[in-house]
Amino acid sequence: MQTTPLRGGRGFLSEEEKQNKPHITMSLLKRIFSYLRPYWKQLSLTLLAIVVSSIFGILPTLLTGRIIDDGLINGDLGMLVTLIIISLVVLVISNLIGGLESYLSMWMAAHITGDMRNQMYRHLQQMSHRFFAASRQGDIITRMTSDIDGVQSMVSTTLVNILRNAILLAVALTALFAKDPLLAAVGMVMVPLFILPTKKVGRLRWQITTESKRHQDDMNQIINETLSVSGQLLSKLFVNQGLEFERYQQANRSVIGLSIKEGLAGRWFRVTMNIFTNIGPMLIYLVGGLLMIRYGNTTLTIGDITVMVALLGRMYMPVNQLLNIQVDLIRSLALFDRIFSYFDLPVEIKNAPDAAVPERFEGDLSFEAVHFHYDQGQPILKDINFTVAKGRSLAIVGPSGAGKSTIINLIPRLYDVTGGAIRIDGIDIRKLDLDFLRGNIGVVTQDTYLFNGTIRDNLLYAKSGASPAELEEACREAQIHDFISGLPDGYDTVVGNRGIKLSGGEKQRISIARIILRRPPLVIFDEATSSLDSISESLIQEAIGPLLARSTSIVIAHRLSTVMAADQILVVDQGRVVERGRHAELLQQEGLYKELYETQFREAAAGEAGGSGDKYESVA
Length: 620
Known about the structure:
The protein has 620 residues and is of the alpha/beta class. Among the domains are: 11-179 and 324-347, ABC transporter type 1, transmembrane domain (ABC transporter transmembrane region fold); 181-299, ABC transporter type 1, transmembrane domain (ABC transporter transmembrane region fold, Up-down Bundle). Helices cover 62% and strands 10% of the residues. It has a 6-stranded mixed sheet with strand order 6-7-8-3-9-10, sandwiched between helices. It starts with 14 loop residues before the first helix and ends in a 10-residue tail after the last helix.
């Protein structure tokens, strides 16, 4: 369950919040206040504005006594007008200062959360591929959005409310006891009675809110699943739209009922609090009346009693809000704790302090006794050795799960080896500058990702300064220019989320055009045609041919012609290189490669020889 501060009526901590309550230490508090330190001037001005606003805000209440006694009862019209004008001026000044305080607190909160978002985004960018493969995307988005938004509410609302209510309470109490200590003490009698109903209704509303959130989560899940592109299609094809609507309607009905219950709980709470807050003024009227009427207290006036009642009302509100301040603080600290837990995640893949940026990137690649594991004791790659000279090609084949994709993921340092070394042009890639390394490697994956923008935007992602002529040249080479030119908006066509408006082959050719734009010395193809129709596959083979010819290339092979054209074939099984050589050599070895050929390649070879281009199973 997500922890979010400052929700109405949550006057206690749930069991989960109690269990996950952060351990409050001086280092945690220092770390939190380190985000406030750059804005200490704004914080000081905010505090000063709150003090001045609180004092000015209470002055009209104090002047009310003089308005009654000196103006109304004494019948002095001039004094009455003067006092009213002074009250209005003070009221205007108080509200103007209050507006300044609100602006300062919001400005400060917005900048602090902006700093945290930038820090979080930069930190997540540096996390390894392992982190994103193991983490739920929803958790990452929650840290970036809801959690940091909660920090903004904490700074602009919780922190400022603590300061405002504490100062307002101090000013009101000082004015009360300065006016009449006895009546002030009488008014304070009701304060302890606020605690019980506040806590009770907070617990009830929290329980209702928790249940309501569960049903809202159900509604959101239904929306997410059934109104997505794939979900709505599935519900239509299986004629389950009525069933899904009934599920949504039932969850919605539950939320409506719980909303009514929560509203009723709040109503009875307001009734109870209204009774308690009105008993205090009645007691002051009673005691004040006894002092004036029965005991003849000549120093106490009607105006004084009126001021005491007004001051009491000003005191009750901050008292009520400060009662729940511990809960708000713990929830706010829990948010910081969640955010800091992400900030404290180690950056596994990073530049060496003396990272090298060579003048040239030739593309000579070698794996030297490479080992790799995700978890200790569960090796994925074991003693991998091979070399690929500049301009040469390597095809990697093997059964599913053999470790082929892991091998190519190590080259651009999506992961780091756990043993041995990978060298490019004789330099350990861990000693190369990351941007330099990745900037000279082009990767085409099976699952092509396009941003929800135009074709031009997606192409420029590879080379932001490319001219229209360069884009067209790359797309011609990738066998996609004619298709793009035939679209109504051409290169300005919006491709949709993840490129959904395009076919798999079209997306793949655009991704190849992106690589061509970069002209990398080393290219990697990871089963780039394994899920395409025969026409798209043929076009892509034509597109990657020139790219493979002019670069050092690593291909997880899918097509027999690609395997046979490779300068070297690496056969991988259970994380080890079990065979290597050319096609004819490997067939003579009577090993795994021949088995793959007999079970999967032979049919593909017949299809290629006959020009049918029929779909066949992937060897990778």
